[in-house]
Amino acid sequence: MKTTRPYAQTERRAATERTRTAILDAGLDLSREKLSVEIVLNDVAERAGVTVQTVLRHFGTREGLFAALHEYGTARVTHERLAPVGDVVTGIRVLVDHYETSGDMSLSFLAQERTDERVRAITTAGKALHREWVTTVLGSLVDNDTAAIDELVVVTDVYAWKLLRRDRALSRDDTEHRMLSLTRAVIEHHRLSPTSTPTRS
Questions:
Q1: CA 122 – CA 108 distance, rounded (Å)
Q2: pLDDT > 70: what percent of the chain?
Q3: Counting Cβ atoms within 10 Å, is residue 73 exposed (0-12), middle (13-18) or buried (19+)?
Q4: What is the maximum alpha-carbon separation in the chain?
Q5: What sign has the CA pseudo-torsion 105, 109, 110, 112?
Q6: DSSP letters along 26-37, please?
Q7: Rg of the chain's alpha carbons, rounded to an integer?
Q8: Cα separation of 34 and 192, whole Å?
Q9: Which end of the chain, N or C, is more open, meaning fewer C-beta atoms within 10 Å of its C-beta?
Q10: Are 149 and 139 spatial neighbours (Cβ–Cβ below 8 Å)?
C-alpha cells in the first residue's frame, strides 16, 4: 500500500493537469472562432469533453477561466516566439510561424479591445510582449535606439503580417520574405544613420 499510494496520487495529479490543459486548449480554440462575449462555459466544456461543473471546479467562475486563459495564452505565445538574440532571419521565421497559428486570433482580439475590457487587458499585455520580443531579439542590432525599436515593432507587428498574408493573399514564404526585407531595411537605416544619443525604450 505504501508504494501504490504515492503512485495513485501522482496519477490523480497528472489526470487533473490533463483535464485543466484540455479546458484551456478548448478555450483558446473557441477564441479563434468566436468573440469573447460569445464564449460560454457550456461551449468550453463540450469542446474539452468535460462537464460545466468540472470547468467550475478547476477555475471557479467564467472570469476565473478567462484569467487563466490569459496566463496560459501568454505562456504559449512566449514559448512559440523564442528566437536567438540578434538572429534576424530566425527571428522573423519564428514570428511568422507564430502568426500563422495565432495571428487571426490576435486580430480578432484587437478588433474587440475597444468594447471589451477583458480583451483590452489581453491586447495591452500582448503589445507589451511584442515590444519586449523586438527589444530582446533585435534591439542590440540598433543599439536599443527607441526610434529604431518603434519602427521594428511596426514592421514585425501582426498587422504587417495581415496586410501581406490576408489582404494581399501572399504565400507564407513570400510574407516572411517581405517582413524580413522590411526588418533588415530598418536595421540598415539605423546602422548608416545612427542617432547621436541612443536612448532605450
A1: 12
A2: 94
A3: buried
A4: 73
A5: positive
A6: HHHHHHHHS-GG
A7: 21
A8: 46
A9: N
A10: yes
Nearest to 33 by CA among 17, 47, 14, 52: 47
Report the alpha-carbon distance of residue 98 to residue 108 in Å, rounded: 15
Q: How far apart are the first and last CA of the chain?
A: 59
149 has a pLDDT exceeding 50: yes
* Residue found under cell 526585407: 181
SS (HEC) of the chain: CCCHHHHHHHHHHHHHHHHHHHHHHHHHHHHHHCCHHHCCHHHHHHHHCCCHHHHHHHHCCHHHHHHHHHHHHHHHHHHHCCCCCCCHHHHHHHHHHHHHHHHHHHHHHHHHCCCCHHHHHHHHHHHHHHHHHHHHHHHHHHCCCHHHHHHHHHHCCHHHHHHHHHHCCCCHHHHHHHHHHHHHHHHHHHHHCCCCCCCCC
**What's the pLDDT band for 197 if we cut at 50, 70, 90?**
very low
Torsion angle (degrees, nearest 10) of CA 109, 114, 120, 126: 60
**Cell numbers 467550475 label which residue?**
56
The answer to whether 101 touches 156, Cβ cutoff 8 Å, is no
User: Mean pLDDT in the chain?
Assistant: 92
